[in-house]
Amino acid sequence: MSTLLEVTDLHVEFRTRDGIAKAVDGVSYAVQAGQTLAVLGESGSGKSVTAQAVMGILDSPPGRITAGRIAFHGQDLLTMPERERRAVRGARMAMIFQDALSALNPVLSVGHQLAEMFTTHRGTSRKDARAKAVELMDRVRIPAARQRAGDFPHQFSGGMRQRVMIAMAIALEPELVIADEPTTALDVTVQAQVMDLLAELQREMDMGLILITHDLGVVADVADHIAVMYAGRIVETAPVHRIYAAPAHPYTKGLLESIPRLDRKGRELYAIKGLPPSPHHVPPGCAFNPRCPLARDRCRTEQPPLYEVAAGRTSACHYWHECLHGTRDSGTPEGAGR
Amino acid sequence: MGRYVIRRLLQMIPVFIGSTFLIFVMVYALGDPVAALFGDRAPDPATAAQIRRDLYLDHPLWQQYLHYMGQIFQGNFGTAFDGESVLSLMAGAWPLTLRLTIVAIVVEAVVGVVLGLLSGLRRGRTVDSGVLVLTLIVVSVPTFVSGYVLQYLFGVRWNVVPPSVSPGAPLNQLILPGIVLALVSLAYVTRLTRTSVAENHRADYVRTATAKGLPRHTVVVRHLLRNSLIPVVTFIGTDIGALMGGAIVTERIFNIHGVGYQLYQGIVRQNSPTVVGFVTVLVIVFLLANLLVDLLYAVLDPRIRYA
Amino acid sequence: MPEPSSAQNPGEAVGNAGAGGTMDLAATEAETLVPGRGGEPDPGDRPRSLWSDAWHDLRRNPVFVISALIIVFLVVIAIWPQSIASGNPLACDINKSQDGPAPGHPFGYDTQGCDVYTRTVHGARASITVGVCATAGAALLGGLLGALAGFFGGWWDALLSRISDVFFGIPIILGGLVFLSVVTSTTVWPVVGFIVLLGWPQIARIARGSVLTAKQNDYVLAARALGAGSTRILLRHILPNAVAPVIVVATIALGTYISLEATLSFLGVGLRPPTVSWGIDISSASTQIRDAPHMLLWPAGALSVTVLAFIMLGDAVRDALDPKLR
User: Do B188 and C25 lie within an 8 Å CB cutoff?
Assistant: First the structure.
């Protein structure tokens, strides 16, 4: 198993009217070949911006990568000439967007948009590219692919459109696919079908997958590893089965507890109190401290590093012990009663 | 699609009747064509009555209008008071104006879209501000002023082109008049393209196109520009009619004997058949251009469905 | 020269091609204006309305300040031309025909031997009068008819749309030539009347569009549900919100109307001597452009600056009133 993608200490800033917003503030994660990394977080946590930086499609200006390294097969994408980078983008590394209706060009047929992958990267003739586009649509199980290749995005249903997006991403059998909330815009019944398809294609093609989501339910079935993000930073990483059993960060814990569960029927649903911070006014210390049940003075002044809590597990919480084992450290009584 | 075309054609009929009738009323009811025929001399009453009968002028206005339109649709545009048939005037004038309009449209489309694209892609930067100021200035200088100034500079001062166009109006002599005619529209095309490009620049599908690894020029031309041009094409289409009307001023400045020139002469000399004939054709061209734009719109934007 | 064009455009994307391309864009962008809140004239519990926000922005916008200053200056010399040019614009000395600048006559003389400076200053009155009156007329007539059409809909709306289609079908310079060539009056009123006649449909469309938008607002629906009458809803809730786009379009239209008046005067059917008008002066200067370009320069420059000032003002007002651009 080799490391496919390694993001190290990535910083992204947005210059806006209200000042500089640190959208991504020192994020590091890695994806192994053929494995799935789920990146979890609320909107505004920087999960999508990180993905855009990896793909090299950051809106710039106002976005700007100020520091960090994004290594793909050990090669830094950030220092790569744009020409080479473009050859990677789409062909070896592809992205699935959340809202296929707006992410697909409304005035070009889906067949054309799929064929473009082959004509651009492989120099395939238009006719052959068109045939391959139909094959692709078949592969993602769009019925009557041949007839529908000439249709435009608005003529497809939401689920079918997302299949087109997936087809476009897997067209050139990339090594890495980044799926940014691929099912959020879909009906619940369709969500499962699309996720199943994605998982199946991943297995078949042995692709690495970064699944960006805020839905913990989706993650359990498909992910190998999880990275939880909050306010532009990673707060916890862990293998998927471990995190459900015992989260090592109060934020993750809060997320897990706010999932409605049948065995807790009738009880009030847990909700993390407060709101995520604005990227312009991130609280000092641990960004989560105003909302954290474990917070004490140290959390308000000292930013926690990523502690290694077990093999392959990290947590950015000073008091990860308490969270993980449900116990309190001795000598810190002030958080009691919260 | 076929049904849509037919519906649009039917919708045009009242507009066509209304517009031509309005002009007809202005020409025939407000002025006195027979008096105009005689110039300053007082017409002999008997002769005048005879002429009125010949010209169908002794009927109520709406009957005159019906009679006139009936004639037109049989291809008879009547005779100008100086004896020349209106049809032959048209045969001489229309090709010139058509050529002039084509030059103007090409100038306005090419230059306008390029400038608009450049400033739209660099919104807020120096290029953008420069282009915006330039378009404001161009819009503010009336065509007849810019026409004379450019004619003076290029035709007289620097002697680059002949100051007035020779009778045959070869294409190379029409470039300057074409630019003059296009100037104001050019500024609108630029601004419209700019707004449209700047709006679409952040669109998700443009980001998708980049994520696909397409080269920058493909992203810009095939994905961004293609979508941004939809409103621009519509504007240019509806502008065809406006340009033909605006040719009155341009043709006068550069002495081109096209539709605008003939119309102007017709109006000044109260040559009613000429005026109404030319205007009728102008209105038809205008309406057809609008229909064409509608259809083009459907081709460019598949989301528009015609029921 | 701007022309009216389209009968009915497909899609609202481009709005309509109205009595001038300028207005096309203004129209396009103005139609997207989101009517602000604040139908209720109740300054107490309304922290910042669309208008006070806009005013706040405008005062800091150099484009607005400059164009407003130019316009104030133009209005002043239109009302009191004698204040900066005491001479008589009609007092000419043929012996000085086409002479260059002389002491007290900085712009030189025209073909008739009239002082170009005096004529240029006095020419402002005709242009400003035509622009202001025609815009006021077109905005009132078009605004009222458009608002009624948008509010009541139905056959009234259909009829108005067809009528404005007819007016859009006539190229404006052409219509001006036909209509004004039979008029012999030397006052500005026939020109004003004609511009109102062909200009109102364009404003009516904008007014109709913004009333339609305002009508859908929740508070209007709520007022209706509470049993407020049509007149009350129209006056208190809808009109205040429909006014902003009309003002924007009207300001820009004012510039193009001035330009239109000059064009018609240039063609010999607009204002006529002895009225002092930039259009007339440019027309007579144009034949002498080879020998005396200065005769063209001043009136043409004055005309262009005036039109520019109004278009810039309209642009600035639109930017201030359009919350989308913030």
Answer: yes
Nearest to C167, CA basis, from A143, B158, B22 = B22
Which segments within chain B are labelled E, that is strand? none
Please report the DSSP string for A223-260 in residue order.
-SEEEEEETTEEEEEEEHHHHHH--SSHHHHHHHHTS-
| Angstrom distance (rounded) from CA C140 to CA C154 | 22
Q: Which of B28, B51, B73 is the last residue of a domain?
A: B73
Distance (Å) from the alpha carbon of B164 to chain C's nearest alpha carbon: 13
Residues of B in contact with C172 (CB under 8 A): 245
Is C14–B192 a contact, with Cβ atoms under 8 angstroms apart? yes
Same domain, yes or no: B190 and B213: yes
- Return the pLDDT at A103: 92
Ordered structural domains, chain C, with CATH: 6-45 (no CATH), 51-325 (1.10.3720.10)
Reading chain C (326 residues) residue by residue, the pLDDT tens digits are 333 333 333 333 333 333 333 334 343 333 334 343 333 344 444 445 667 777 877 888 888 899 899 999 999 888 888 777 777 777 777 676 666 676 666 667 776 777 778 888 888 888 889 999 999 999 999 988 888 888 887 888 888 888 887 887 777 888 888 788 777 777 888 889 989 988 888 888 888 888 887 777 777 777 777 777 777 777 777 777 778 788 888 888 888 898 888 888 888 887 877 788 888 888 888 777 777 777 788 888 888 999 889 888 888 887 777 654 43
B215 — phi, psi (to 5°)?
-60, 150
> Does C307 contact chain B (CB < 8 Å)?
yes
Q: Which residue range is the domain that position B9 belongs to?
A: 2-73
Please write down the long-range contacts of A14-17, taking CB distance under 8 Å and 24 or more positions apart: A14/A62, A14/A63, A14/A64, A14/A279, A15/A61, A15/A62, A15/A64, A16/A62
Residue B16 phi/psi, 5-degree rounding, is: -60, -50
Asked if B50 and B99 sit in the same domain, the reply is: no
Q: Measured between CB atoms, which of B210, B301, B303 is closest to A57? A: B210
Q: Does C63 touch chain B (CB under 8 A)?
A: no
Q: Does B284 touch chain C (CB under 8 A)?
A: no
In this structure, the answer to whether residues B182 and B225 fall within a common structural domain is: yes
Q: Which chains sit next to C, with 3 or more Cβ pairs under 8 A?
A: B
The answer to whether residue B60 is domain-embedded is: yes
Q: Is B227 on the interface with A (CB under 8 A)?
A: yes
- Interface pTM (ipTM) of the complex? 0.84
| Closest residue in chain A to residue B303, using alpha carbons only | A154
CA–CA dist B1, A195 (Å, integer) = 39
Q: Does B205 touch chain A (CB under 8 A)?
A: yes
Lowest-confidence region among B35-39, B161-165, C236-240: B35-39
Q: Does any domain span residue B29?
A: yes
The verdict on residue B80 lying in a domain is no
Same domain, B223 and B109: yes
Q: Taking CB atoms and an 8 Å limit, are B213 and A91 in contact across chains?
A: yes
pLDDT tens digits for A64-85?
888 889 999 888 988 889 888 8
Among partner residues A55, A105, A109, which is closest to B205 by beta-carbon distance?
A105
**CB pairs A-B closer than 8 Å:** 76
Tell me the CB-side half-sphere exposure of residue C165, using CA atoms within 13 A. 20
Taking an 8 Å cut-off on Cβ atoms, the answer to whether B142 and C166 are in contact is no
Residues 91-150 (C) with a CB less than 8 A from some CB of B? none
If you measure CA to CA, which chain C residue comes closest to B133? Answer: C312
Query: For chain A, what are the domain ranges?
Result: 102-171, 246-325
Q: Which of C271, C67, C129 is nearest to C187 (CA)?
A: C271
**C7 and chain B in contact, CB less than 8 A:** yes
CB contact under 8 A, B213 and A89: yes
Please tell me the distance from the alpha carbon of residue C32 to that of residue C17, in angstroms, as a whole number: 16
What does the pLDDT average to over B87-91? 83
- Could you tell me if B254 and B186 lie in one domain? yes
The nearest alpha carbon in chain B to A52 belongs to B211
Same domain, residue pair B179 and B268: yes
Query: What would the pLDDT profile of B10-26 be if each residue is shown by its tens digit?
Result: 888 888 888 888 888 87
CATH number at residue B239: 1.10.3720.10
Total of domains in chain B: 2
